[in-house]
Model the fold of this input.
Amino acid sequence: MSARRATRGALGALLAALALAGCGGSGGGSADAGTAATRAATHTTTAAQHAGAFAPLRPGRIPPLLSATNVYAAERPGLLAAAAVHARALVYVPNSDDGTVDVISQRSGRIVAHFPVGKLPQHVTPSWDLRTLWVTNDLGNSLTPIDPLTGRPGRPVPVLDPYNLYFTADGTRAIVVAEAHRVLDFRDAHTMRLRHRLAVPQCPGVDHMDFTADGRTALVSCEFGGRMIVVDLVHERVLRTIPLRPSAMPQDVKLSPDGRVFYVADMASNGVWLIGARDWRVLRLQPTGLGAHGLYPSRDARTLYVTNRGEGTITLISFRTRRPYRTWRIPGGGSPDMGGLSASGRVLWLSGRYNREVYAIDTRSGRLVHRIPVGASPHGLAVWPQPGRYSIGHTGILR
Done:
C-alpha cells in the first residue's frame, strides 16, 4: 500500500472515531480513555504515523479542516506530521531576563542544554511547516532559529521588536507582533523579509491572537487598551475594534473546537471573555482565578486549561458547558504562565514566570510531576513535537 493511500485511510478512520467520540463533554485530557472510539483513534494514530502522518503541505492555500465540528481534529494524541516525527522530545524555555534558552528533556525533566539568544526572549514559536522553532528576541530585534531535530540554535535573523510570532494559515506570511511599535509586520514566512507593515495604533500592547476556523480572520488582544481588534489576514487590514472594559488586560486567545466562540484570558479581570466568532459580540466574562493568562485546549478537545498566574492555579473549563468544572493548585504556589501539552496530552508544561521554574502537570490527575529550576523570568515555552499539520504560531497553535 502506498504511503499516500495509507495516510488517507488512516485519516478517514480517525475522523470516524472523532465522530463517535464527539468534541463535547467536560472531562480532562483522558476523559474518553477506554472507549471504543479512543481505541479506534489510537490505532488510527499509529497507522497515520507509520504512513508519514500527513501528506506534506505546500504554502499558498489554507488547508481544509479535517472536521467541520472540531478545529483541533489534527491535534489528537501522537498524530505527528512527517516534519515532526523525528524531532527530539524537548521543552524550550525562553528566560526573558537572562537572554537565554533552557532545554528540558520531556522524559527525565532535566535540563539537557542551555544557550544564549538575543535580549529579552519572549516566546518559542514553531514555524508553519514545523521545521523550525523561532525564539522571539523582543529587545534583541531578532529571531533565533532552532533545529527541532537536534535542539541546536542557528544564526539569528534581524527583525524589529518580535514580541510574538504567528503565521498566516496558508503558510506564505509570518506575522511579527511588534508590540512596542503597535504594528503587525507581515513578512515572508521563510526569509522574514518585510512585505507589509500594518499599523494598529488603536491596539496598545498588541500581544496575542488566534484565527477563525477558516483561517482568514484573527482576533487580536490589546493588553494595555482594554479591547480586542479583528484583523482581515487576507487583505491585511483591521476590520473592527471590540471594547471589553477600561481596566481589562487581555492576554492569550483560543478558538473553541466548534469554531463558534473565542476565549480571551484577562489577567486584570481574573477570568476569560467569551466572544462570538461570527458576530464578534462579547458574550460574558467567566471568572477563573487571579491573573488569568494562558489558554490550552486538551487533546480530546473537551477541556480548556486556563493558567491563573497570580494565584498558582489552573482552571479547567468544559468546552461543552463553557463553565469551569475543576481547579488544580500548584503545591506551595507558583506563577503558571505560558506553555503547552505533550504530544500525548498527558502532561501540561508551563513556565513559572515569577518563580524561575517550569511545571509539568499530569493532566489525568492534576498532580505536579516536575518542578524544574530554570533562568530568570521564563515566559512562552514551547513543547515539541506537537500533533498537527501546520502551525499558526505562538507557543504552538496547530491545526
About this structure: The chain has two helices and 29 strands. Residues 1-53 have pLDDT under 50 and may be disordered. The CA atoms of residues 68 and 258 lie 8 Å apart. The domain at 90-384 is CATH 2.130.10.10 (Methylamine Dehydrogenase; Chain H).
